[in-house]
Design a protein that fits this description.
This protein is mainly beta. The chain is 3% helix and 60% strand. The radius of gyration is 24 Å and the shape is globular.
Length: 628
C-alpha cells in the first residue's frame, strides 16, 4: 500500500551511499526529504513513500508499476513491458524529474532530452521509493523542476538470507529473481539478480495496419544484477559500494513511411533495441559527534543500439562521472546545518543517428554547492530553508532556493504545510550538439513553484489535500523552419490538487484512496499540454486475511487527455479515459515456501497510452517463492 508522507525540502539520499547509514529508516522516518533522518511530522512538502512491503503485496516488477498510483504523476509507456516510458510530475515535462538510485543520478546523457528510461529498472531490490513533488533545484540542481524520484535499494543485515522467485503467465512471460543478503562481522552485503521476459505482448492497434499486414507482438528481455556492500572500518567510519548492471533487448514495431504520400504506418519489420547500462558509487562515511560527513564517487554509462529497417541504425553512448561531499552539523538544539559540494562531468561520445554519424565527443562540467538549515522552533513549528549555486561550463551559473515550513498541532492531529522554491533544467548534450536540431546557444529551462496543504488525522483515518502551482519558462522546443533548430521559446503553467485518504479499518485491513486534478497549459496558446490527464484516481485495498493469506487490489482511473496520433500528423486529439483493476494474492505454505499470483487489467480494458500503442489487456501470472 502507498504510504503518504509529508516532507520538507528536497533531498538526495544522504544515506544513499551504501554504508551503515544507508539502512532504510523505520516507520514514520523519512531520510531523503531533507538529506537527514527526519520524523515525517516535521517536514512540509508532499512525498509518497512506497516500501518493499508495498511492492511485494502488489507484485510490482518494474519502476513504472511501482509509480502508477502515486498522486501527481502521469505515466505513458509505448507498448508493453520495457517500452519507452515517460513520467510527468505535476504537469511538468518528462525530462524535468530527477531520478536517483542510491545517490546515483540516473539521468542519461546519451538520450535526446537527457532523461532516464524508467522502464529498464526492475524492482525486486527496491527497499524504498520516495517521490517528492515540487521544484527541487535548491538541493538537487538541474532536472528537478517537477520533483524527485529517489530509490533506496535493500541492504544486508544479520544472518545470511536467500530469497528466490520464479513466475510465468500471459504474454509469454517468464521471470526469475534471486537475492542473498546479510552481514558477517564488519562486512554487510546484498546482491540480487533479476530476469524479466515478456515475449509476446500485443501493442499495435489493428486499424493502423496496412491491408494484409500482420501485427507483431512486442518482445522484451531484461537481465539486471545489483550488489550493495559495506564495511565498518571503525565505530565512526565505514565504506560502501553499490553497483548496478542492466542488459536489455527489445523488439518493437516502429514506423515506416510511404515514399510518395509520406504517410506513416506500423512497419512490417520489427526494430531491435539493445541497451547496456552500468552504474556504480563508492562512499566513505565519517561521524565525529556533532559533525557527520560522507564523500561519494559515482560513475554511470549507457550504450543503446537501435536497428531500424525503415529509418536507419542508431547508436548512442553517454556517461557521467560525479564526485560529491555532504556534511551535517548539529549547530544547536533544534538547528541542523547541511552543507554539500558536487562536481560532475557529462559526456556524449560519437555514435550513429538514423544511419548518419552523430556528433563528435562533447562534454559539460558542472560544479555546485548547497546549504540547508533545518529548524525546530518548538510549539510544533518546523522549517527547512535551502539555497544552491550551480556553475555550468556551457551556460554559466544558476542559483536556486527553497523554503518549506510546517505547523503541527498535536492535540487536534492537524498539520498545515507549505513550500516555495525554484528549479531549472539544463539543456541536454543532444539538445546542444545533436546532429538534427542541436543549438549550442540554448539556455536552461527555469521554474518557480509553490504549494500549500493540510493533513488531518481522525483516529484510524487520515486525509490530506495539497494545492500546487508552477510557472515554467524558457522551455526548449523546435524553433521551426528552415533549420528546425531548438530554441528557448516555450512557457507553461500548471495548477492542481493532490489529495488522499487512508483508513485502517482493522489491524490487518487498510484502504487508500487518492485523487489528482492537474491543469497543465501552454502559457502562450492556452492549450492543454499533451499527455497530462486532468483527472486521476485510485483506490487500493491491502488485506492480511490470515497469517498465511494476503490480498491486494487496486482500481485505477485515468481521465481523458490530449495527445497526438502515432506519427503526429494529427498534432492534437482527445484520448478517452479508462479504468482498470489489478488483483494480487499470496499464500504462505510454510516458512520457506510461498505461492503467489496476480491478475493485471482484470477488467480487460482496451486503451492506448500513448495514442497508437495498445496497453496490455487482461493477463494472469503465478509463481512460487522460496526463502532460506
Amino acid at each position: 500500500m502507498l504510504k503518504f508522507i509529508l516532507c520538507s525540502s528536497v533531498a538526495i539520499a544522504a544515506l544513499a551511499g551504501v554504508a551503515r547509514a544507508d539502512v532504510v529508516p523505520g516507520e514514520g522516518i523519512v531520510v531523503s526529504a531533507t538529506r537527514i533522518a527526519t520524523p515525517d511530522a516535521q517536514v512540509a512538502s508532499s512525498v509518497t513513500v512506497i516500501t518493499a512491503a508495498d511492492i511485494e503485496a502488489r507484485q510490482d516488477r518494474s519502476l513504472p508499476d511501482v509509480l502508477r498510483e502515486v498522486p501527481g504523476l502521469s505515466i505513458t509507456q509505448s507498448g508493453g513491458a520495457g517500452g519507452q516510458s515517460s513520467l510527468f510530475m505535476r504537469g511538468t515535462n518528462a525530462n524535468q524529474v530527477k531520478l536517483l538510485l542510491d545517490g546515483i543520478d540516473l539521468g542519461d546523457p546519451s538520450t535526446p532530452s537527457g532523461a532516464a528510461d524508467i522502464s529498464k529498472l526492475l524492482a525486486d531490490d527496491f527497499a524504498q521509493v520516495e517521490v517528492l513533488r515540487g521544484p527541487a533545484g535548491a538541493l538537487y540542481g538541474s532536472d528537478a523542476i517537477g520533483g524527485v524520484v529517489n530509490i533506496i535499494t535493500k541492504a544486508g543485515e544479520g544472518p545470511m538470507k536467500i530469497v528466490a522467485r520464479v513466475e510465468g503467465g500471459s504474454f509469454d512471460s517468464f521471470n526469475q529473481s534471486a537475492s542473498a543478503s546479510g552481514s558477517q562481522g564488519a562486512l554487510h552485503y546484498a546482491a540480487t539478480i533479476q530476469h524479466f521476459h515478456a515475449g509476446a505482448t500485443p501493442v499495435t492497434p489493428s486499424n493502423l495496419l496496412q491491408p494484409g499486414e500482420a501485427a507483431h507482438d512486442d518482445f522484451y528481455d531484461n537481465v539486471s544484477a545489483t550488489a550493495k556492500l559495506g564495511y565498518d572500518v571503525a565505530e565512526n567510519f565505514d565504506l560502501g559500494l553499490v553497483t548496478r548492471y542492466v542488459n536489455s533487448l527489445g523488439k518493437v514495431t516502429g514506423d515506416a513511411f510511404d515514399a510518395i504520400t509520406f504517410a506513416s504506418f506500423p512497419s512490417p519489420i520489427q526494430t531491435r533495441i539493445s541497451a547496456i547500462q552500468y552504474q556504480t558509487r563508492g562512499t566513505a562515511h565519517l561521524s565525529l559527534g556533532r559533525f557527520d560527513q560522507t564523500l561519494g564517487l559515482a560513475y554511470g554509462s549507457t550504450i543503446t543500439a537501435t536497428q531500424d529497417p525503415d529509418n536507419g541504425d542508431s547508436r548512442a553512448i553517454g556517461d557521467r562521472l560525479k564526485l560529491d561531499w555532504q556534511g551535517r552539523v548539529a549547530v544547536m538544539d533544534g538547528q541542523t546545518l547541511v552543507l554539500g559540494a558536487e562536481t560532475s562531468r557529462d559526456a556524449l561520445h560519437p555514435g550513429l543517428s538514423f544511419g548518419f554519424p552523430s556528433t563528435l565527443s562533447r562534454g559539460i562540467t558542472t560544479h555546485a554547492g548547497y546549504g540547508e538549515i533545518q529548524s525546530d522552533f518548538g510549539s510544533g513549528f518546523y522549517n527547512s530553508a535551502s539555497i544552491r549555486y550551480d556553475d555550468n561550463s556551457r551556460f554559466g551559473s544558476k542559483p536556486t532556493w527553497r523554503l518549506a515550513p510546517a505547523w503541527v498541532i498535536e492535540r487536534t492531529g492537524t498539520k498545515v504545510k507549505a513550500s516555495a522554491g525554484t528549479g531549472f533544467k539544463a539543456p541536454s548534450l543532444q539538445q546542444l550538439y545533436g546532429t538534427f536540431g542541436g543549438n549550442a546557444a540554448l539556455k536552461p529551462e527555469t521554474s518557480f513553484g509553490y504549494d500549500i496543504g493540510l493533513e488531518q488525522a481522525f483516529g484510524p483515518l487520515t486525509a490530506g489535500v495539497t494545492w500546487f502551482h508552477n510557472d515554467i519558462k524558457n522551455l526548449i522546443v523546435s524553433g521551426g523552419a528552415p533549420l528546425f533548430l531548438l530554441a528557448n521559446i516555450g512557457r507553461a503553467r500548471t495548477d492542481g490538487i493532490e489529495s488522499f485518504v487512508t483508513w485502517k479499518a482493522l489491524e490487518t485491513l487498510r484502504f487508500t484512496a487518492a485523487y489528482t486534478y492537474t491543469d497543465a497549459i501552454d502559457a502562450a496558446t492556452r492549450l492543454a499540454l499533451l499527455r497530462r490527464p486532468r483527472h486521476k484516481a485510485s483506490v487500493n485495498t491491502d488485506w492480511q486475511v490470515t497469517d498465511a493469506l494476503s490480498l491486494d487490489a487496486t482500481l485505477r482511473y485515468v481521465g481523458p487527455q490530449i495527445d497526438g496520433n502515432r506519427d503526429f500528423s494529427i498534432p492534437r486529439l482527445k484520448m478517452p479515459g479508462y479504468a482498470s483493476l489489478d488483483i494480487a494474492a499470496s499464500y504462505r505454505l510454510t516458512d520457506m515456501w510461498t505461492l503467489f499470483g496476480r491478475i493485471e487489467n482484470a477488467t480487460d480494458t482496451s486503451y492506448q497510452s500513448p495514442d497508437g500503442f495498445l496497453r496490455p489487456g487482461i493477463g494472469a501470472t503465478g509463481g512460487i517463492k522460496v526463502t532460506l
